[in-house]
Amino acid sequence: GKSADKLFSLSGLFAVYKPKGPTSAGARNLLKERLLAEAGVQTNGNKRNQVLKIGHGGTLDSAAAGVLVVGIGKGTKMLRTMLAGSKKYTAIGLLGKATDTLDATGKVTEEKPYDQITKGDLENVLQKFTGDIMQVPPLYSALKKDGERLSTLMKRGEAVEAKPARPVRVYSLSLQQFQPPLFTLDVECGGGFYVRSLVSDIGKELSTCATMQELTRTKHGPFTLEEHTLYEDKWTIDEIARTLQHCTSLLPGEPSHKKLKTEHPGETAVSCE
Known about the structure:
Elements: H1 2-9, E1 12-18, H2 24-38, H3 48-51, E2 54-57, E3 65-72, H4 79-83, E4 87-95, E5 97-99, E6 108-111, H5 119-126, E7 131-135, E8 144-145, E9 148-149, H6 150-155, E10 166-179, E11 182-189, H7 195-205, E12 210-220, E13 223-224, H8 225-228, E14 229-230, H9 237-248, H10 255-263
Parallel strand pairs: 1-14, 3-12
Antiparallel strand pairs: 1-3, 2-3, 4-11, 4-12, 5-6, 7-10, 8-9, 10-11, 12-13
Region (Disordered): 253-273
Domain Pseudouridine synthase II N-terminal: 50-195
Catalytic activity: uridine(55) in tRNA = pseudouridine(55) in tRNA; a uridine in tRNA = a pseudouridine in tRNA; uridine in 5S rRNA = pseudouridine in 5S rRNA; a uridine in mRNA = a pseudouridine in mRNA
């Protein structure tokens, strides 16, 4: 039918809102099912399902929400370059508690007093985590050892050695709110950065401990939460066609791209490097 033809002709990158709960792959699969159902494409035993190429770039943990970049058609080949683009997050940290996963989904492993910590202490510490820094990734993560995710190995109770610290980049880091034990951070970072490791490391630096309560990705590459993100009620063929047209101008190789670059000379995100 007509809508099936339109669906299979879609190509490019766009952004969807991933709610708290599903994995990034789960959100992508739901999107794919919705689109195939709207197009009236039977998925059982129909090979057409394999033909609809949809992928995502830059996995968000299940407990996190926000911008998830999706590639459709030829756009799936562009996701690799997207992964390198900078990302912005708003994170809420909790002082005085540490968990094994470094976020609210884990078991509490440590509790320490935090009432001595002032807003000034927290702001001073943030400077140490800005710029090019070394970061040890979390044990519970999608990083792999012998082809298996560390989080899978951990859940099976297998001993997992900490990965070595690796260089990561923090473009900006600021304290938005301080209501002990909670604090809210805005962070813009490069690829491979773990915000929950940052929150945990900030706790240690303050001689207490901390774990991440909430995480929202507000920007990935040129895609922002406010402007470019499709919420679940807009996961339709027409809405995606519309957003793809709008988003093409955000990506490299477009005439309007040059204009964007001069407007934000310091913004690497726009060029998706």
